[in-house]
Amino acid sequence: MAVAGCGSSLSAAPISPGGGAPTGSAAATRSSAAVSSTTTTRTRPVHVSLSPHVTPLASTAPSAWTPVAKVAGATVAWEAQRGGVTLLRFDQHHAELHLHAGSIYPGGTGWPYGDQIQPNEIHRIIAGFNGGFKFNVPGNGFEAGGHTAVALSPGLGSVVTYTDGTTAIGAWHEGVPRHGLAVESVRQNLQLLVDRSKVNPSAFNCPLSCWGATIGGRIVTARSGLGITPSGQLVWGAGEAITAGTLGQAFVDAGVVRAVELDINPAWVAGYLYVHHSTGPKFYPVVPGQAGIAGQLLLPYNRDFFTVVSR
């Protein structure tokens, strides 16, 4: 994949997952190296959570949000479909996002979460889905647990998880990181696809060179992304035959205020829900027609990816 830089006329609103003060000027001038010095271990205690009760839908999701996972009776995940885009929404009061390092991208050791669903996640896993572009593509970054695979760049759309387990989405140093919160991981991928509840105009007028080279040069292809609502709920979206503009509009229609595009093209876009059994979790694909990832993230995978687990 190759991406030509296209600037965005949109700027990120101050981020505050679950409510709170906006990012201060001190945070906006911190370098990625300074942030790295704070990425150590989680500040909250590690505890054993109840296994989620996951109930995948038997058919294509309706337009209305439908519960697909509960923890201790509380709904933590919903599924819907808008404009050919499958959407999963997660309540961060009961679930948290983990950034995993792939066996090749970025490879190496010392990452908080490695190339498959971890033993400390296996009984808590709700969902898993693909990460961002390969690291040789301009406009991305990867940092986790104090280690940097690709240096972070100001202005890029960033999925930022703090050591308290909450995740925010915004433009780096233009909304995230939030001042006073230590960072556990950051995955950057291009500019923001959605900002202030508006789709980036380049998603419509610069669909290929701004939003990723596609197989065969097709504007319509498999695409995915991750967004956040005003209340801090996370929304993952993907479709097998959509444009960047379609993905962005689906996020806006779902109440998302900021979103990043993640990976594209059929071989690298996939999402799963996991149903728990005595023998371990069983995967269920959520995007109609998705090519899928070998091992469904339960076995080692060479690319980075995300998991959502119960708190």
Could you please describe the fold and organization of this structure?
- The protein has 311 residues and is mainly beta.
- The protein has one domain (41-310).
- 7% of the residues lie in helices and 36% in strands.
- The protein is built from 4 helices and 19 strands.
- It has helices at residues 25-28, 32-36, 202-205, 244-253, and strands spanning 53-54, 66-71, 74-82, 85-90, 95-100, 125-130, 140-144, 147-150, 157-162, 167-171, 183-189, 192-195, 198-199, 221-228, 234-242, 258-264, 271-277, 280-285, 305-310.
- The strands form 3 sheets. It has a 9-stranded antiparallel β-sheet, covered by helices on one side.
- The longest helix has 10 residues, at 244-253.
- The protein is globular.
List keywords for this structure.
single chain, 311 residues, mainly beta, nine-stranded antiparallel beta sheet, five-stranded antiparallel beta sheet, 4 helices, globular
Helix content: under 10%
Give the tally of β-strands: 19
By secondary-structure content and strand pairing, the structural class works out as mainly beta
Distance between the termini: 35 Å
| Number of contiguous helices | 4
Strand order of the largest sheet: 1-2-3-4-15-14-16-12-13
Count structural domains.
Answer: 1
Residue share in β-strands = 35-45%
The radius of gyration is 17 Å
Q: Ranges with pLDDT <50 over ≥5 residues?
A: 4-41
What do the pLDDT scores average to?
88
Largest sheet: 9 strands, antiparallel
Order of helices and strands: HHEEEEEEEEEEEEEHEEHEEEE
Shape: globular
